[in-house]
Amino acid sequence: MIGALSITQTAGYGVLYYAFSVFIPPMSRDLHAGVARLTGAITLAVLVSGVVAPLIGRWLDQHGGRGLMTAGSLLGGLAVLAWSQVRTVAQLYLVCGVLGVASAMVLYEAAFAVIVAWFDATRRARALLAVTVVAGFASTIFLPLTGFLVHLYGWRQALVILAAGYALTCVPLHALAVRNRGVPPHAARREIVGTALRERPFWLLAAAFLTQTGAVAVMGVLLVTYLIALGHPPVFSAGVAGLLGVLSVTGRLVTTGLQGRWPVALVTAVMFGLQGLAAVLLPLMGRSPAGAVIAVVLFGLGFGVGTIARPALLADRYGTRAYASLSGALALPITTAKAVAPLLAAGVAQFAGYPAVMGAVAVACALGAVSLVAYDRDTPPLAS
C-alpha cells in the first residue's frame, strides 16, 4: 500500500497542482488573460480543497479511503481532461474548483488518514516518511515532463496526456491497494472530536501549523523574486530556490530520525525556529551568494516538516478513530493560510519592501515554534 500511495501522491501533486505553472504562458496567449487572473484559478482550487476538507475527513472516518480515493482520482482525471477544452477564464475557474474537490479526495490529507488508520504507532512514522519522501520529488519530475509535453504537442494535448496517465495510474492503484480498517462507532468519533475542539492543545496545533504554513507558502512563492531583488542573477536565484524541494526531503528524514529520542512537537519546534532565524538572516547576509545559500538551507530544512509532523501529533494525542475528522478541521484554516498568505505578502512587499515580508515570516515561524512548545508542555495525550 505504501508503494502505491507513494506513486499516486507523486502523480497527484505533479498533475493536479505543480503542472499548472507550466501551462500559464500558453494559456495566457490562447485565453487572452493575464498571469494574475490565471493564477487566481489555482488559488481557487487550493481554497476549495480546504473548504471541503472537513466533509472529506468525516467521510474517511466513516467509510475508509478506498472508495473515496478511487472516485477522487477518476474525478481528477476528468477535470484535467476538461481543462484541456476550456475556452474562457470562467471555464478555467470552474474546472479548478472541481480540481480542488478532487485534490481533497486524493492528496496528502486522504492518504495520511489511510496510513494513520492502518499502521500502528511503531510503523506509522516510517510509512508517512516513505510516502512524503517520494512525493517530495513531484515537482522535480512533473515540471520538466509537463514542459516537454507542451513543447511537443501543445498545452491542450499535453493536458489530455496527463489526464489519461493520471487516471490510468491512480484509479486502479487506489482501488486495489488502499486498505480500509473497521469503522469505529459514530458516537465515539463525535465524542473525540468534540473533546478535541474544546481543549487548548488542539488550538495550539492549529496556531502552530497555520502560521508556519503561511510562512512556507510566502517563501515558496516570493523567494526567487526576493533573491533577484537582492542582486542575484535569475538563474542563480531559481537554482537556490530549487533547493527547497530537496531540503524538504532532508528535513523530513532528520525529523523522523529524531522522533525516537525527543518529542515530535519539540523537534518540529526547533525546525520552525530555524526557519524563523533564516528569515532574519536573509535580508542581513543574503546579498552574498554564500549568505543566500546558508539562509535558504536553514529555511529549507523545515520546509516539509509540517507535512509529517501534523499527522503524527494528531494521532499521538487523539488516537486514530477520529483522525481524519480532526485533520479535516485543521486543514480548512491551514489551507486558507496557504492560499492567502502569498497574496498578502506581495502587497506588503510592494508597500513596505521585502525585509518587512521576511520579518513577518520570522514572526510567523516563531509563533509556530512557541505554540508547539506550549502544546508539548500541556496535558498528556487523550488516546494512544
From TrEMBL:
It is a multi-pass membrane protein. One of its GO terms (molecular function) is transmembrane transporter activity. Residues 1-380 form the Major facilitator superfamily (MFS) profile domain. Keywords: Membrane, Transmembrane, Transmembrane helix, Transport. Pfam families: MFS_1. One of its GO terms (cellular component) is plasma membrane. It comes from the Bacteria. PROSITE patterns: MFS (PS50850). InterPro entries: MFS, MFS_dom, MFS_Riboflavin_Transporter, MFS_trans_sf. The keyword Methyltransferase does not apply. The keyword Transport applies. Transmembrane segments: none annotated. It is found in: Cell membrane. This is MFS transporter.
